[in-house]
TrEMBL record:
Keywords: Membrane, Transmembrane, Transmembrane helix. This is DUF58 domain-containing protein. Signal peptide: none annotated. InterPro entries: DUF58. The keyword Iron does not apply. The keyword Ribosomal protein does not apply. The chain crosses the membrane at residues 12-35, 41-61. Residues 208-375 form the DUF58 domain.
Length: 448
């Protein structure tokens, strides 16, 4: 008996019904001092309670393996997305049980209420599903899964511990990547805001001579081939391939600002991953550069099957820095790495004209050799302030300042355009869609 309690006391918990029974017995003993007619009723009630406790312990502890439980976690989690976690439970008890599950999820989520209550019939199986949305890349450690079981009596609860600590990496949003890729393959990109861009003229890359079908442009008729074959033939053109597309990510302090749990750096990383995938699907070469006070990682442009995996592995490790961007280092890296004209999508953030003025000389020099697209962020909180109704003098002051900053962002767009630099001013949540739209527009208009 002693060994039994030493072995199981840590996993034995008293239920609410037991405390209610103890309270009832204590009340009967108390009143027996003033009401002699109660006689042996308190002793009988206490004996019944002890017998029920013994029966409950026999029911719960007569099987060493009363349950099987397995937690199914993906090999990696997608940052900023809802990742599904499954807990499979199978009961081996020959009677119905009431269970509660506590999953020790990683501390980064700061959740202490992961409790799932359920009822299982004899030898029943059940799967519990829930989702986790990480907002930071890195390693997340899952602990044990603790299962609390009580019999129909409900006087005591037995705990089972399953699993072991498991470390799961959180990568940039590959779920978003797959969603865009599947919609691109099925030509349903318009459902998520991707616009159909009207192609201007023809690309310069000849594909083949084919038979004319209704709808083909008469200007593409190949008269020599038509004369030889005796039927109308036209030239077919394809998009220019193997163009270099580089995502340049600023990871300085300006990208530390959070929106809906994610930092601007994480929004930029997720968008870069999707853009790189779209570029590879368009048979362009995708590359990556990260920059802060010094040049970070460089992935030369390529379109090999493993290129997207290389980019994802680099992005997984990137973190924001706390110094300003060294634009001179960026310009030097671009000149040394890129030997041909490329599309450079620079993810950064400008809060004022003075911030742009410091970087503008280097941006102009980069734009001489490459097609430069600056992507920076609209402050959605400031925008909401400009739309709020003013109720007092302080509100007028706040709204005036908010309008000033919002107007300055628009001035930055005009200033960049004045120097021939393309730009996108976008809310963080619409970043990916807006960047892909601009890339497709650039391809269609043959600006590169």
């Amino acid at each position: 008996m002693k060994n039994f309690f030493i072995t199981y006391y840590k996993d034995l918990f008293l239920g609410k019904k037991l405390f209610a029974g103890i309270g009832l017995c204590a009340t009967l003993f108390l009143f027996s001092f003033f009401l002699p007619w109660l006689g042996d009723i308190p002793f009988v009630a206490f004996s019944i309670l002890m017998a029920l406790i013994a029966i409950d312990m026999i029911l719960l502890y007569r099987q060493n393996k009363g349950f099987f439980l397995r937690r199914d976690v993906p090999e990696r989690l997608s940052n900023g997305d809802e990742n599904e976690i499954n807990i499979y439970i199978e009961s081996f008890y020959p009677f119905a049980t009431k269970v509660g599950v506590i999953d020790e999820i990683p501390w980064q989520f700061q959740k202490r209420d992961i409790w799932f209550a359920s009822n299982l019939k004899a030898r029943e199986r059940k799967t519990i599903n829930y989702v986790l949305r990480p907002t930071k890349r890195g390693e997340y450690v899952f602990g044990l899964v603790r299962l609390y079981v009580s019999s129909p009596l409900g006087l005591i609860t037995r705990r089972f511990n399953f699993g072991e600590e498991k470390t799961v990496p959180v990568y940039p949003s590959f779920l978003q990547l797959r969603r865009y890729e599947l919609m691109a393959v099925s030509n349903r990109l318009s459902e998520i805001g991707i616009k159909k861009i009207r192609r201007i003229g023809h690309s310069l890359e000849f594909d083949q001579v084919k038979n004319y079908v209704q709808g083909d442009d008469y200007r593409t008729v190949n008269w020599k081939a038509t004369a030889r074959k005796g039927e109308l033939m036209v030239n077919s053109f394809t998009d220019e391939k193997a163009q270099h597309v580089y995502c340049i990510i600023d990871k300085s302090r300006v990208m530390k600002m959070p929106f809906e749990g994610l930092s601007l750096l994480d929004y930029a990383i997720n968008a870069s991953l999707v853009l790189s995938n779209v570029a590879l699907l368009k048979e362009d070469k995708a590359g990556l550069i990260t920059i802060a006070e010094k040049t970070g990682s460089i992935v030369p442009a390529d379109r090999k099957p493993a290129q997207l995996g290389r980019i994802m592995e680099v992005l997984y490790k990137e973190k924001t820095r706390y110094l300003e961007t060294n634009m001179e280092n960026l310009y030097t890296s671009i000149r040394s790495v890129m030997k041909q004209r490329s599309l450079l999508v620079f993810f950064t953030n400008f809060e004022s004209m003075s911030a742009l003025t410091r970087q503008l000389p280097f941006l102009k020099r980069i734009a001489k050799f490459h097609l430069l697209l600056i992507v920076f962020f609209e402050d959605t909180e400031l925008k909401s302030l400009t739309e709020d109704e003013v109720k007092d003098v302080e509100g007028i002051y706040i709204k005036t300042i908010a309008n000033k900053f919002a107007y300055e962002k628009k001035l930055i767009v005009k200033e960049l355009a004045r120097h021939g630099i393309l730009s996108i001013l976008t809310p963080p949540e619409k970043l990916t869609v807006n960047v892909i739209n601009r890339y497709l527009s650039i391809k269609a208009q043959q600006k590169l």
